Task: inverse folding
């Protein structure tokens, strides 16, 4: 994992699933580490983020908005991690959003349970943040 020049110092949001099939949004806050497979598809992650109707940009309310759509929310609070869970879903993941995220081939599957992980990282090669690859634990959408 690396901080790539194209996102360093800017907010970049990316998506991942856990071993249980739940989804989370990860906010880099300009300093968070990002899996290489995500960086190679950064435009796809940005497009998914842009397609999610959320309210409260520029405030803490935005995190509640993501949670109301059914996502776990992790934020990077200091350079290079860890990502800290700041919201859990307040409703079921919406069907349209689930379908969209399932089609996002570059969304890594993390070897964690978001429900039981207050933080993810720091990003060391042998830790849980290491993506398991592209194989998805669900049928194609």
Result:
């Amino acid at each position: 994992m690396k901080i790539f020049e194209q996102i360093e110092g800017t907010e970049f949001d990316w998506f991942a699933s856990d071993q249980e099939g739940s989804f989370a949004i990860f906010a880099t806050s300009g300093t968070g580490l990002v899996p290489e497979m995500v960086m190679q598809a950064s435009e796809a992650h940005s497009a998914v983020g842009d397609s999610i109707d959320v309210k409260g940009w520029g405030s803490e309310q935005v995190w509640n908005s993501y949670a109301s759509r059914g996502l776990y929310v992790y934020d990077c609070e200091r350079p290079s991690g860890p990502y800290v869970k700041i919201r859990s879903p307040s409703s079921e993941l919406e069907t349209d959003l689930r379908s969209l995220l399932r089609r996002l081939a570059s969304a890594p599957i993390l070897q964690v349970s978001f429900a039981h992980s207050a933080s993810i990282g720091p990003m060391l090669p042998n830790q849980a943040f290491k993506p398991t690859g592209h194989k998805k634990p669900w049928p194609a959408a």
